[in-house]
Design brief:
Layout (H helix, E strand, L loop, with lengths): L3 H4 L1 E2 L3 H9 L16 H20 L8 E6 L5 H6 L22 E8 L2 H10 L6 E5 L8 H4 L6 E3 L10 H14 L5 E8 L15 E4 L17 E7 L1 H15 L2 E10 L5 H5 L9 H8 L27 H25 L3 H9 L7 H12 L9 H19 L10 E9 L1
Parallel strand pairs: 1-8, 2-3, 2-5, 3-4, 5-6, 6-8
Antiparallel strand pairs: 6-10, 7-8, 9-10
Helix pairs in contact: 2-5, 7-8, 10-14, 11-12, 11-13, 11-14, 12-13, 13-14
Length: about 425
């Protein structure tokens, strides 16, 4: 770890973002199998964040009160798009409302970012919305004066690892300012990078929280020349380390911080699972899941199987619960893929055994549903049944298995945390 990667480790981090904006990665939408807004981002990660935020927002949208939202590390308005496109938990009872929070139901959204290009893009994206603004902020220094003069916000929000750019002291300082600025009952919802992701097993035994990271996943594989990759330092968090910082910071701020949940996001679909830059073995899982989620492409089943044998050498450097989580998810994931393979090969006996002999809790219904779909393809008026029906459904089941884990163990690319401020 002290070798080649460390030599290319840079402390600066805005240059690549400036380039990414100029290359068009931060416009309103850039769908596809690769890139910043690939299908995993849109239909797995965005959905994950929306679903974990939904109950808190649904409980905070009374008839005559508009929400105030502060987006920390907002980019060009990522948080605004996420929070205003969350479907209701009971669509039958909300037939006239597509989303639980409309833009008009936001009193004020303030996006903070360190990148001038991001701020400029955000202002351009939302120039017609008077309740949306973007301000420069170096969060390493805490909340800017322009925010401290504001009334408390209902939600202090941050997504996709923005707060992982801060070291432990800077994160504690920022949280302390948030806790003091917040009102009773305000929420802080954010995610950071998980320490024990299978994307970076090289870091599992590192004592330092801050370690190198790169956004080279945005580059095509043939242009991902390691000698030209830009690296910068970010923080990788274990749940225990994050809880300790939250508890200590809340005490210093004179408030109680009620941790509502911590959850692992993108365990096997993180950005660097495919690149292999921080592991011994690149796995094309994110790309293949993106294919599953695209109605124009067929997923390649042989590349969707997960083999974690290359992690055995790191096994002693990861907490046992996190190691068991990785293996449990691998087992469930592969069960789905093996069933699909058996269906495609018309191996009816194997299909029957998969369904009847599964010892995995809550998976029997999923296996039966996939089988029913596959055997009733003629009921669906689509050109390519695999690409349009089976593929997306397989991806949704794989995503829902991840979301079924109720406690984050730091083994996802992201570790999502929600805190209620109690004063």
């Amino acid at each position: 770890m002290k070798g080649e990667i460390m030599k290319k480790w840079k402390t600066g981090r805005t240059e690549f973002y400036e380039s990414a904006v100029s290359m068009g990665f931060y416009g309103r939408d850039d769908a596809g199998l690769t890139g910043k807004k690939d299908n995993v981002r849109k239909f797995w990660e965005d959905v994950f964040i929306k679903l974990v935020c939904r109950p808190f927002i649904e409980n905070r949208v009374p008839a005559n009160k508009k929400l105030r939202i502060l987006d920390l590390g907002s980019g060009s308005g990522e948080g605004f798009e996420l929070l205003t496109h969350i479907p209701p938990s009971n669509p039958q009872g909300n037939t006239n409302k597509d989303f639980i929070l409309r833009a008009s139901e936001i009193d004020k959204y303030v996006g903070l970012d360190i990148s001038p290009s991001m701020i400029g893009q955000g202002r351009a994206n939302y120039r017609d919305m008077g309740n949306v603004s973007f301000e420069y902020a170096n969060l390493e220094e805490g909340l800017p004066a322009v925010v401290m003069k504001e009334k408390p916000f209902d939600i202090y929000f941050s997504s996709y690892g923005s707060l992982s750019h801060l070291n432990e002291d800077s994160l504690s300082h920022l949280m302390q300012m948030i806790f003091r600025h917040a009102a009773k009952g305000s929420l802080l919802i954010f995610d950071v990078h998980g320490k024990f992701s299978p994307s970076w097993p090289k870091y599992w035994n590192e004592k330092s929280i801050m370690l190198p990271y790169t956004m080279a996943y945005l580059l095509p594989g043939d242009k991902r020349n390691e000698e030209k990759i830009e690296w910068f330092n970010i923080s990788y968090w274990s749940p225990e380390g994050l809880r300790e910082v939250i508890s200590r910071t809340a005490g210093n701020a004179g408030v109680n911080a009620n941790i509502l949940y911590m959850l692992d996001r993108s365990i096997f679909t993180g950005r660097h699972i495919d690149t292999g830059l921080l592991s011994r073995k690149p796995l094309p899982l994110r790309y293949q899941v993106s294919r599953l989620l695209d109605h124009g492409y067929r997923g390649e089943v042989e590349h969707l199987k997960i083999d974690l044998n290359h992690l055995e050498e790191f096994r002693d450097h990861i907490p046992l619960p996190a190691w068991e989580r990785l293996n449990d998810y691998q087992k469930k994931w592969n069960k789905i893929i093996y069933l699909l393979e058996a269906l495609m090969n018309s191996e009816d006996t194997k299909v029957k055994n998969f369904i009847e002999n599964t010892d995995i809790e809550l998976m029997s219904d999923d296996l039966k549903f996939i089988t029913w779909l596959y055997r009733n393809a003629d009921r669906f008026p689509v050109v390519d049944f695999w690409a349009s029906i089976i593929g997306p459904q397989i991806a949704v089941i794989l995503r829902n298995i991840e979301m079924s884990y109720s406690e984050g163990l730091g083994c996802g690319h992201g570790l999502i945390c929600a805190i209620e401020v109690v004063k």
